[in-house]
Every structure is written in structure tokens, then in C-alpha cells.
Specification:
The complex is a heterodimer of chains A (355) and B (284).
Chain A: E1 4-13, E2 16-26, E3 31-35, H1 42-50, E4 57-62, E5 65-66, E6 77-80, H2 92-98, H3 107-120, H4 136-148, E7 154-158, H5 166-183, E8 186-191, H6 194-200, E9 203-208, E10 211-216, H7 218-223, H8 228-233, E11 240-247, E12 250-252, E13 256-259, E14 268-274, E15 280-281, E16 288-300, E17 304-311, E18 314-321, E19 331-337, E20 341-345, E21 351-354
Helix pairs in contact in A: 2-4
Chain B: H1 2-14, H2 18-45, H3 65-72, H4 74-107, H5 113-122, H6 128-142, H7 148-152, H8 159-170, H9 174-182, H10 187-198, H11 200-215, H12 219-224, H13 233-240, H14 248-280
Helix pairs in contact in B: 2-14, 3-14, 4-8, 4-11, 4-13, 5-8, 9-10, 11-14, 13-14
The chains are: A alpha+beta (355), B mainly alpha (284).
Bound molecules: adenosine-5'-triphosphate (ATP) and magnesium ion.
Chain lengths: 355, 284
């Protein structure tokens, strides 16, 4: 159990900087998820925490001690890899027990831990099997088991679910989450999938180009994204963005009627974000933003339908509630209520506030 | 269903194309050419000295006398022992050191890595014949002539083996090694416990090639040894022919016994050899 602190942490590969001096505190027992697009430095950061990459600058503290120079084994951290990294020449039980290879526990105690981990992960019947005879999900559980038996200060996960199919992925998400609830051990989890971040994290860290853009709880990030990037990254489908202008306390968007908004102080061009979920097909029922568009494509999901629209020059996605599926090519009205608009500066792309 | 499969069977048996016949014929001829000397060796080993020049494949009066004579000869047993000792030691040494160096070159970044690899690789291009003189000079300077070590030292590590193992270790995903590192294993244990078991096919190929190469080695052992007790089997057997009258039947008997370990290796490890040759994609 330990708090992990990143202080101005830098990673350089030769002349290129992969991580640009990031600051972050991970509280003891917290489930922290790093998200960001490919190449943003998530894995590199995680590997620095693990001790698999040298730290080029700044400090890494685990439990209040600077561990920059410590070997991975001295950090008491366990890691689960994307490709599971379970050893093909050992049985499931041996693989799980391998986490205890260097521990000084008695043989009986080791065996007890292996069996416990096996039970927790539903592997008790498979302990004598070879990894080749396991499914992807079972392999991933073995990898988690190997990390568990060590009773480490923290678990590090690097995209552990990306090799699994969609259904198994959502099942494993829940399993990892409940494992965390039971063990209470700090987890640092890396993914490029915002759904994983939203569903599992206590705290999400959004990274881009080696920098941290925003840190917050899933609802925080969903409700108050600091910039266009985070706004579009969190939430699925992505937030719609249309151009507009704020002048003299009035917002105007080409082809849309706007009423009853309290705008943040800003003059000039702005980007207006609306989540597809908040942009509803149908006549306006009150103040807010209303517009019409042409249906380009529809994605019926059963209880509702995602409608792809062309509104003037912009492409947006709206939601049609109920089982009504609009015809392709038809013109429909859409409406977004007060409070569902996110405003951003068009130049800096920083958030201005909501309206 | 049944109809269809019967038809298929019929179609299959009619499916003997001329191309196949040619291939089989060529393979058959090749096989016969390869096996004839071997058959003659065994056949001659069963003949008496008077029958040696009677070139019949099946001896008129087969006898095991030669085997009794050869096996009863203390020198022969000594040579057999020498060959075994040398081939086994050199094989173990190659498996260990070639892998260790190959692994280091494959998995660690350090200054000069590429240069070292090239240097090792470049020795592959120098033929043994050119190396024999430096080896000999070195052995005589260091007093290694006429010793087991003198016979073994040039082969204790090979560039080919190092290269082979390096290629294979490159195929071992880093995740496995890093997982072990995070679990607290030291680098040597990671190599031995994790990386080595993952390249077992390559290790078997290397072990087989090394064993066979050393078992049949002739040139260098002949040069470096002077006393008969240190001869290896091939050198010893050939020394039979240097004696007053060439006793072909005894030479052939010695050779026949000498091929037994080779045949055993082939029969027992056939699977690995085929795979090894395919894996190595080189040297056969
Ligand atoms: N060994 C290396 N040498 C040089 N550059 C590297 C090395 N490893 C990573 N990088 C660079 O560092 C940056 C961050 O890489 P990193 O692996 O942390 O990305 P990531 O966020 O994990 O991406 P992904 O989602 O694709 O795994 C990338 O631009 C990458 O090219
Ligand atoms: Mg990564």
C-alpha cells in the first residue's frame, strides 16, 4: 500500500521527449486510469513507475521515498502486460506462483496464496493446465493472479484488455473493478479506450503528446472538460463541435436559432460543443439551440437511434429517442436544451464554460 | 455423403501426376546413392579379411569376429570415450555460452553491441583451413598441444551458434522478460528460467549440430594430437589404415560402431532435427 507521486517527471529518448515533466499524485488505494491517443506517453509513464525505463528528469516517489534509482524488484510493484506475458512452459499454477519466485515465504504459504488467487479469479480447476490450453480471458486472469499473489504496493496495468473481444472486455472490466474494491490496492491502469477509463477509474488522467491535459473523476471530465481535446475524447460518440461567434453577450451559430442562454464573458469566435445525447431530434420544447439538418445516416440502437446530420457546413450526430428511425435524406429539427452547450475559445481551444 | 467420399477416394488414387513420379524417382536415386556407402560399410564389417575385395553386398559367410576384435581392443574404447567426452563437453559449452552471448546481443542495449555482433559474424566467413595454423601456433605457445583442451578449445563457442541463438532470442517478446524483472528476478535467472525455455527448438538444433559436428571432426583433432590415447574416433580409425597392412574390415567395423551414436541422435531427435534445419534455414 503506498502513495505514488510523480514530480516533474521527464522521459527522453535521445533528443526526443516522450514525457514532458508531468506532476501527479496517486493516493493510496486509488484506481487511476491514464487515457490518451496512441503515442501520448502513457506506457512510458507507467514503465517509469515500474522501473522498466530510466527516469530522465524529475522525481518518482513511492510511499514518500524517491525511488528513481531503484530496480523494479525494490519497488514492490506488480505489472500486468497487454500480451499477458504468462510463460508458455509453465502451468497456470506455476505461472501464478512465479510471482513469488523471490519471496521468502514457506512452500505451504506460497501454495496457499496460489490457491487463493486461483479461487478469486475462478481458475481453481485450471491450475495444472498449460497456458496454450486457455482462452484469452483466462490467460489474462492468470497474469492478474501472478500479480496478486505478491501482495504488492500497487498494480500497474498496460492495456490489459485490448486483446479481448468486446463482451469479454466488459466482463473483465467489472472483474478488475471488483478485485480493486476487494483488495483495496492502488491501481494504475493505462488504456486508450475512454470507456474503460470512464467505467473503472476513481481518477482519470488525460494525456496528450507527453503532457497531462486534465485530471479528475469520470463525471468531472465528462461535465467540465478543460479543452476541446478532452471534451471530444471523453464520451461516446464524441461531442459535436460547431463554429459560432460570441458578440456583445450574444451567441450566433449559422443556421441555428438560439435563445435563453447565459453566456460566459468572451468576444469573438468560439466552438460550441454539444454531446450527441443532448442534441435531440424533434421540435424545440424550450430555450436553447434549435436547428434543422439533413439526415445522412442512421444507427438504430433499439431504444434510441443515432442520427448523422449535415447542418449547414457541419456534420453532427444527434439522438432520436424512441423507436422512430428518421428516413435518410429527410430534413429534421434538432434541439439542445439550456445547460447542454460547452463553449470553447476557437483559437486556444480552452473551455470558456457552459451555457 | 458416402457416394461422394468414395468418388473422392477414387479420384485421389488416380491423381498420380507425371511430376510426382519424376520427383519420387529422383529422391529414390538420391537416397540409394547416399545409403550405398553406408551399406557397404556394414557389409564389409561382417566379412573376413579374405572376403573384403569380394564386392557382394551380402557377405557369403557373415561373422561378428571383427566386432569382437575391435571392441576388445582397448585403444578403440579409449577413442570412443575421447570422442564422447569431447562432443558432449563442447555441446554443453556451446549451448551455454552461445545462448548467453546471443541473448545479451539480442536483448540488451549497450555501446558497441552492433560492432561486437559484426565481429562475431565476420568470423563465420573465415574457413577452418585458414584458422588451423593460428590455432596450432596458439596451442603450442600455451602448451595445449596433445590435450583434450587443445582439441576442444576452438569449438567451445561458435559464431554460428551465437548468431543462431541471437536470432531466436530476438523473437522472445520483451514483455516476458520485463514481467520477470518486475517480479524481482535477477538477469541471469531471467535468462535461464524464462528466455531459455522459450527457445528450446533452437537449443536442440544447436545441440544436435554441435554434437554431430564434433563427433565427426577429423582435421583439427588429427593435427593437434600426437599420442594415440588422445585420438578421437575418426582419427583413431583412420590410423588403422596407416598400419603395415590395411585391414579394411576392421576400419569399417570401427566406422560402423562410430556411426551408432549418430544414428541414435538422428532416430531419437528426428523431429527436432527436421524442425532445427527448417528453423536454422542454413547449414544442414
Ligand atoms: N524505446 C523508445 N525509443 C524511442 N522512442 C520511444 C521509445 N519508446 C517509446 N517512444 C516514443 O515515446 C512516445 C510515447 O510512447 P508510449 O509507448 O508511451 O505511447 P502510448 O501512449 O503507450 O501509446 P499506445 O497507446 O500506442 O501504447 C511515442 O512517441 C514513442 O514513439
Ligand atoms: Mg502503450
Amino acid at each position: 500500500m503506498a502513495k505514488i507521486e510523480l514530480q516533474k517527471l521527464v522521459k527522453e529518448y535521445g533528443k526526443t521527449r516522450a514525457v514532458h515533466g508531468i506532476d501527479l499524485t496517486i493516493e493510496d488505494g486509488e484506481f487511476v486510469v491514464f487515457v490518451g491517443p496512441s503515442g501520448c506517453g502513457k506506457s512510458t509513464t507507467l514503465r517509469m513507475i515500474a522501473g522498466l525505463e530510466d527516469i530522465s528528469g524529475g522525481n518518482l516517489l513511492i510511499g514518500g521515498e524517491v525511488v528513481n534509482q531503484r530496480e523494479p524488484k525494490q519497488r514492490n510493484i506488480a505489472m500486468v502486460f497487454q500480451n499477458y506475458a504468462i510463460y508458455p512452459h509453465m502451468t497456470v499454477g506455476q505461472n501464478i506462483g512465479f510471482g513469488l519466485y523471490t519471496s521468502k515465504l514457506s512452500k505451504a504459504e506460497k501454495q496457499k496464496r496460489i490457491e487463493e488467487a486461483g479461487k478469486t479469479l475462478g481458475l481453481e480447476k485450471l491450475l495444472d493446465r498449460r497456458p496454450a490450453a486457455l482462452s484469452g480471458g483466462q490467460r489474462q486472469r492468470v497474469a492478474i493472479g501472478r500479480a496478486m499473489v505478491r501482495d504488492p504496493a500497487a498494480f500497474l496495468f498496460d492495456e490489459p484488455l485490448s486483446n479481448l473481444d468486446a463482451q469479454l472486455r466488459s466482463q473483465m472490466r467489472m472483474e478488475i473493478k471488483s478485485l480493486h474494491r476487494r483488495l483495496g490496492t492502488t491501481i494504475v491502469y493505462v488504456t486508450h479506450d475512454q470507456v474503460e477509463a470512464m467505467t473503472m477509474a476513481d481518477k482519470i488522467v488525460v494525456m496528450r503528446d507527453g503532457n497531462i491535459l486534465q485530471v479528475g473523476s469520470p463525471t468531472d471530465l465528462y461535465e467540465n472538460p478543460v479543452d476541446v481535446f478532452t471534451a471530444r475524447f471523453i464520451g461516446s460518440p464524441s461531442m459535436n463541435m460547431v463554429e459560432g461567434t460570441i458578440a456583445g453577450g450574444n451567441l450566433s451559430v449559422e443556421g441555428a436559432a438560439i435563445s435563453g442562454l447565459t453566456l460566459p464573458a468572451h468576444e469573438g469566435k468560439a466552438l460550441i460543443g454539444v454531446r450527441p445525447h443532448d442534441l435531440v431530434v424533434g421540435e424545440a420544447t424550450g430555450a436553447g439551440l434549435s436547428a434543422t439538418g439533413t439526415v445522412e445516416a442512421v444507427e438504430p440502437l433499439g431504444s434510441e437511434t443515432l442520427v448523422h446530420l449535415t447542418m449547414g457546413k457541419a456534420q453532427v450526430i444527434a439522438t432520436a429517442p424512441g423507436r422512430v428511425v428518421p428516413a435518410i435524406g429527410s430534413a429534421v429539427s434538432v434541439h439542445a436544451g439550456v445547460g447542454s452547450l460547452y463553449l470553447f475559445d476557437a483559437v486556444s481551444e480552452k473551455a470558456l464554460g457552459r451555457a | 455423403m458416402t457416394m461422394a467420399s468414395t468418388k473422392e477416394l477414387a479420384a485421389n488414387s488416380r491423381d498420380i501426376r507425371p511430376g510426382r513420379i519424376i520427383t519420387w524417382t529422383l529422391l529414390l536415386i538420391g537416397g540409394l546413392i547416399m545409403i550405398t556407402p553406408l551399406l557397404f560399410m556394414f557389409s564389409t564389417s561382417l566379412k573376413t579379411s579374405g572376403q573384403v575385395y569380394d564386392l557382394r553386398l551380402i557377405p557369403a559367410a557373415p561373422t561378428l569376429d571383427n566386432y569382437i576384435k575391435v571392441l576388445g581392443d582397448g585403444r578403440f574404447m579409449q577413442w570412443f570415450f575421447n570422442s564422447t567426452l569431447i562432443a558432449v563437453t563442447v555441446t554443453i559449452s556451446n549451448v551455454f555460452f552461445d545462448s548467453l552471448v546471443g541473448y545479451t546481443l539480442a536483448k540488451f542495449e549497450f555501446r558497441g553491441r552492433y560492432f561486437i555482433f559484426l565481429a562475431i559474424l565476420s568470423t563465420l566467413m573465415i574457413p577452418t583451413e585458414m584458422l588451423v595454423i593460428p590455432w596450432y601456433l596458439m596451442s603450442s605457445q600455451l602448451g595445449w598441444l596433445n590435450s583434450y583442451w587443445g582439441i576442444m578449445f576452438p569449438g567451445m563457442m561458435t559464431a554460428f551458434g551465437t548468431f543462431l541463438m541471437k536470432q531466436f532470442f530476438e523473437g522472445v517478446p520483451n514483455d516476458f522478460l520485463e514481467a520477470a524483472r518486475v517480479d524481482g528476478l535477477n538477469e541471469f535467472t531471467i535468462w535461464w528460467k524464462i528466455a531459455m525455455p522459450m527457445v528450446v527448438p533452437a537449443i536442440s538444433a544447436l545441440a544436435i549440430f554441435t554434437f554431430l559436428g564434433n563427433w565427426t571432426a577429423f582435421f583439427w583433432p588429427l593435427i593437434v594430437t600426437t599420442s594415440k590415447e588422445l585420438y578421437t574416433l575418426p582419427v583413431g580409425i583412420s590410423s588403422f589404415s596407416a598400419e603395415a597392412s590395411i585391414q579394411w574390415e576392421l576400419i569399417m567395423t570401427g566406422a560402423a560402431i562410430g556411426t551408432i551414436p549418430t544414428l541414435l541422435v538422428f532416430l531419437l531427435l528426428q523431429r527436432y532435427i527436421v524442425r532445427g534445419v527448417m528453423l536454422a534455414g542454413l547449414k544442414g
